[in-house]
Amino acid sequence: MIEVELRGWRPDDVPVVLEAFRSPDMAQQSSHPIDTPRAALEWMALWGFRDDAQAFAVVAGGEVVGNVAVSNIDAHDTGWVSYWTSPRARGRGVAVAAAIKLAEWAFTERGLFRLELGHRVSNAASCAVATRAGFAMEGVERAKLRYGDVRHDVERHARLATD
């Protein structure tokens, strides 16, 4: 498996964020466009001021190639996992390695017990990442997400500290 490092986001990472959100599949993943340096900095800053979340830049081969995060941490010691990689880093196991490393951090450092994630049922790549990172499929949530005027079913996965 590829070696990755997780670290906080820094202002000099703006080009990586802009590159990632230029990808058509990523552009719809944010509630507002991330298409300027200011928007990228605001996206990074949003993660830095939350008690219920932590995001990390994913570094592989000395360069930032993605993001992995846990958010919506609740009173039940449950968090929501998300991840993305830049188009040039896809298909190399980066997201899998980052999700595994994030889960280890969340369970040991943050004291969480349950991690959840979801992906559109049509997103086979995200499903493969979740499964390879040890997140068991739990079911399908019908019409959970809406992008524009289209609603999408979401497949839910979870990983427990005891898995």
TrEMBL record:
The N-acetyltransferase domain is annotated at 4-163
Name the chain's protein.
Answer: N-acetyltransferase domain-containing protein
| Gene Ontology CC: one annotated term | cytoplasm
Q: Which SUPFAM superfamilies match?
A: Acyl-CoA N-acyltransferases (Nat) (SSF55729)
Q: What PROSITE patterns has UniProt attached to this entry?
A: GNAT
Tell me what organism the protein belongs to. Answer: Planobispora takensis
InterPro entries on file: Acyl_CoA_acyltransferase, GNAT_dom, Ribosomal_N-acetyltransferase
Q: Which GO terms describe its molecular function?
A: protein N-terminal-serine acetyltransferase activity; protein-N-terminal-alanine acetyltransferase activity
The highest taxon in the source lineage is Bacteria
